[in-house]
Amino acid sequence: MPIPRPCRAELLRRHFSGSAVTRHGDVTRPEPGTGIKLNFKDAKGQLIKTIEANEGDDILSLAHEHDIDLEGACEGSVACSTCHVIISPEHYDLLPEPEDDENDMLDMAFGLTDTSRLGCQVRLTRDLDGITATLPAATRNMFVDGKKPTHH
Amino acid sequence: MPPIKLAIIGGGPSSFYVASRLLSLLPRDGAQSSALKVHVYDRLWAPHGLVRYGVAPDHPEVKNCTHKFDQAAQDPRFRFFGNVQVDTQSSSIVPNAMALPLSSLLPHYTHLLFSTGGSVPILHPALPPSDHVVRALSLVHWYTRHPSCPPAPPLDKISHITLIGQGNVSLDVARMLLTSPSVLEKYDVPESVLDVLRRSAVKHVSIVGRRGPLQAAFTVKELREMMNLGDASMVPLDPALLKPPSDAPLTRQQTRTLQLLQKGSANKPGTTAKTWSLDFFRSPTGLVPPAQLMLTHTMLDSAARAVPTGATSRLDTDLVATSLGYRSDPAQTFYDPALGHLRTASGRIIDAAGRVYRNVYASGWAAMGARGVLASTMMDAYAVADTILADHFPGRVETMAVSPAAPHEFVETQTHMLPEDADLESVPREVAEGIEEGRVVEYGQWKAVDAEEVRRGEVRGKERERMDWNEARAFLEARTSKHA
Ligand SMILES: Cc1cc2nc3c(=O)[nH]c(=O)nc-3n(C[C@H](O)[C@H](O)[C@H](O)COP(=O)(O)OP(=O)(O)OC[C@H]3O[C@@H](n4cnc5c(N)ncnc54)[C@H](O)[C@@H]3O)c2cc1C
Ligand code: FES
Predict the structure, then answer these.
(1) What is the secondary structure of B213-254 as a DSSP string?
(2) What architecture does CATH give domain A34-134?
(3) How far is the CA of B117 from the centre of ligand 1 (A)?
């Protein structure tokens, strides 16, 4: 059962609208070695990083917590499709079916695949340990002089 | 490295996404990086383009993207100047905006980006604007209190409205007309608009398109919202229209559209006082006074174009609103009439021979044409930001996607020349004076108005109560004198 959306959107809204904005603090990090492992890969299939998450964390919040270049323009309200990720097939099958509203937004996502989901709607559970979220082809990740971008 | 001092004309989402990307990719403290300034000019006093003056009030979540825009605007390298219309003809000036010729702007900047959107509605040749034919965009401008200030539609006197065009803007307008004001009043809907909606006598909205359900431009999300309207029901469609074709495989979206249309609206037909219909395969040919719409029936040819079947019919209506897409402002310097928008390649402005104007770019609807949701506008904006950086730091940019090829040939002209170096702080004299006189709005002032709108909304139990420019100006003046 996903947590009710208005509530989550409200949380994010408060989180983002503070004046000293940081993207951290949305999710608490588990003790190393005890969390659910999640791999982020870029469009070419190269590993960006493997992170550890708690039960119930969603992929969009985790991406922001760990400085992965995944957008969430509507802040988890299922109204933008910018948080689109491609899930490893074996884990995709373990996820609850997307609701109608998520499917409606996926229709508009870039580079849609059979195992596409909205990152803001995928919540991690123990049995998803080892799941991979690949950023779709259109997402670019670029640095000038190898410098890591700061987040805005 | 010479600095990047970028002027962006237009302050819609495309502009802010480019700005945000540049500001985050070029860290302020980077020893290798060049200095960066981003100055955004908008002809409207308030920023965010169609996110403020387009997105329907009952889609508040869509507007969450402005939080990211606010973050970009907090960067000290960023400035916003509202009420400044750049590079345009006097005939298309919006009320209160100051006209700034391109020649006044250019000496102050090393880089120029057009993010001016596509703001000119395409008219239907058989339906020129009149008392009974309006542009759907003016209805949008009415319910968003756009500075162009169109009159309110006479909803208390009409019962039947026909929308021409089956895209999301049509469905937005239909939803606004068919949703109970008691639902809308908690959103960002101006009180003056709610007053008109409360007196509305509208009973039916027809949404006319010259092709079929599989070609309709609306998205499933918007169609589902229509199906779930609390007070209205859909007139059932001819089942023959909903049979999937045997010859061509359907896309995912087409399949889901057909399923939804087959299911019909949540309210069963005949159970509601208000109704709406999707009138497929109809093309208007004119209006018999006062407001009887003449329609040619159409079908698809082998290239999926609408062609007449020979049959015709008439539809009694009270008001026709056309929603057939947009083009960019033809008065703009790099406008290409054949395209309906500016001529670009990989975000760079080019001339008819494909030669690149050095350091001049375009993004968003101004570059791509007026199509696509915010997600596609954002992806395009990021690609343009990447192109700007790749051009500025040749060979020094790592990107994980394919970089745009370097331009082959440049246009060498004396006009439209940007200096290679510029005073990082300077702005055109007219703009500096406009700030002084309180005619030009900066981002901090917008944020003060924004907070005040939300506060005024809270008092009424709604998301916000919008101000127009006169109210905003009065509020800002009162605030300045208090602080003085
Ligand atoms: C009615 C409507 C509703 C929409 N609803 C949604 C939705 O719910 N969800 C969604 O994802 N997408 C929606 N869209 C699409 C979305 O708005 C666009 O993808 C996006 O706004 C395009 O961004 P842009 O910056 O290119 O253009 P715009 O948003 O149009 O911004 C252009 C800006 O440039 C300014 N400008 C123009 N000319 C000049 C000049 N000469 N000088 C100075 N400034 C100038 C304009 O005032 C404007 O602020 C909607 C579009 C419309 C028309
Ligand atoms: S963040 Fe907008 S749909 Fe997920």
Answers:
(1) TTT--S-HHHHHHHHT-SSEEEPPPPGGGGSPPSSSPPPHHH
(2) Roll (3.10)
(3) 5
pLDDT of A74-88, one tens digit each?
A: 999 999 999 999 999
Give the nearest ligand 2 atom to A102 CA: 3
d(CA B236, CA B87): 49
Q: What is the DSSP letter of B280?
A: -
Exposure of B169 in the CB half-sphere (CA atoms within 13 A): 25
What ipTM goes with this model? 0.89
Mean pLDDT value across residues A93-110 = 94
Token couple for B119: 């703001």
Residue A2 is encoded by which pair of tokens?
């996903």
Query: CB contact, 8 Å: B64 with chain A?
Result: yes
- pTM for the whole structure: 0.93
What's the CA gap between B17 and B25, in Å, rounded?
A: 12
Cα–Cα distance for residue pair A130/A88, rounded to 1 Å: 9
Atom of ligand 2 at shortest range from CA of A120: 4
Give me the CATH topology for the region B4-119+327-439.
Answer: Rossmann fold (3.40.50)
* CB atoms near residue B354 (< 10 Å): 12
Whether ligand 2 lies within 6 angstroms of the CB of A112 is answered as no
Residue B399: is its pLDDT beyond 60?
no
Listed by start position, the domains of chain B span: 4-119+327-439, 123-323
For residue B18, report the distance from its CA to the centre of ligand 2, in Å: 20
Q: Which residues of chain B from 166 to 225 reach within 8 Å of chain A, CB to CB? A: 219-221, 224
Check pocket membership of B7 for ligand 1, CB cut-off 6 A: no
The response to whether residue B10 sits with its C-beta less than 6 Å from ligand 1 reads: yes
In CATH, which of 3.50.50.60, 2.40.50.140, 3.30.160.150, 1.20.1250.20 is domain B123-323?
Answer: 3.50.50.60
* Nearest residue, CB atoms, A152 vs list B72, B220, B256: B72
The runs of H, that is alpha helices, within B26-96 are 49-53, 65-74
CA atoms within 13 A on the CB side of B318: 15
Model confidence at A147: pLDDT above 60: no
Whether B374 has its CB under 8 Å from any CB of chain A: the answer is yes
Q: What are phi and psi of B284, to 5 degrees?
A: -70, 140
Task: Tell me the Cα Rg of chain B.
Answer: 24
Which chain A residues have a beta carbon less than 8 Å from that of B76?
none
What's the pLDDT at A152?
Answer: 45
Overall average pLDDT of the B338-344 stretch? 95
- Identity of residue A42: D
Compute, in angstroms, the gap from residue A119 CA to the centroid of ligand 2: 7
b/e per residue B372-385 (b: at least 16 CB within 10 A) = ebbbbbbbbbbbbb
Nearest CA in chain B to A45: B400
* All structural domains of chain A with their residue ranges: 34-134
State whether the beta carbon of B121 lies less than 6 angstroms from ligand 1. no
